[in-house]
Amino acid sequence: MAVNAEGFSFEQRHGKERVRVGRVWKNRAGRHFFVEWNVSINLLSDCAAAYLRDDNSDIVATDTMKNTVYVKAKECSEHISMEDFAIVLAKHFTSFYHQVTTAIVKIVEKPWERVYIDGQLHEHGFKLGSEKHTTEAIVKKSGALQLTSGIEGLALLKTTKSGFEGFIRDQYTALPETRERVLATEITAAWRYSYESLSSVPQKPHYFTERYLDVKKVLVDTFYGPPKEGVYSPSVQNTLYLMAKSVLNRFLDISSIQLKMPNIHFLPVNLKNKDNQTIVKFADDVFLPTDEPHGSIQASLSRSWSKM
Ligand SMILES: O=c1[nH]c(=O)c2[nH]c(=O)[nH]c2[nH]1
Question: 269 C-alpha to center of ligand 1: Å?
Answer without folding.
Answer: 19
